[in-house]
What does this fold into?
Amino acid sequence: MSVTWSREAVENLVDIEEFIARDSVERAIRFVDALIDQTETNLADNPRSGRSVPEIGSPDIRELVYRGYRIVYRLNGDRIDILTVFEGHRLLRLNESGN
It folds into this structure.
């Protein structure tokens, strides 16, 4: 399965990297690279590995958690669309779910 990242998800990754880079640019780059790599590896092998997003309740909108960040994705045929990435303590806003 192919994994695609929405513009919002990419923008959020840039924001996360910029925030972490305030302390360490190298750590920020490593963190975001690892988040992307883990997400794509896990989902390519097992697209239903994430749980259904509680705020949405749709079996096709799921999430993985990586070090406190929620990675929300949609199963879309033979493709996985990463919709958004955000801090795990927040709830998903409906405008972030791609609905």
About this structure: Strands lie at 2-5, 51-52, 61-66, 69-76, 79-87. The mean pLDDT is 90. The CA atoms of residues 73 and 82 lie 4 Å apart. The domain at 2-91 is CATH 3.30.2310.20 (YaeB-like fold).
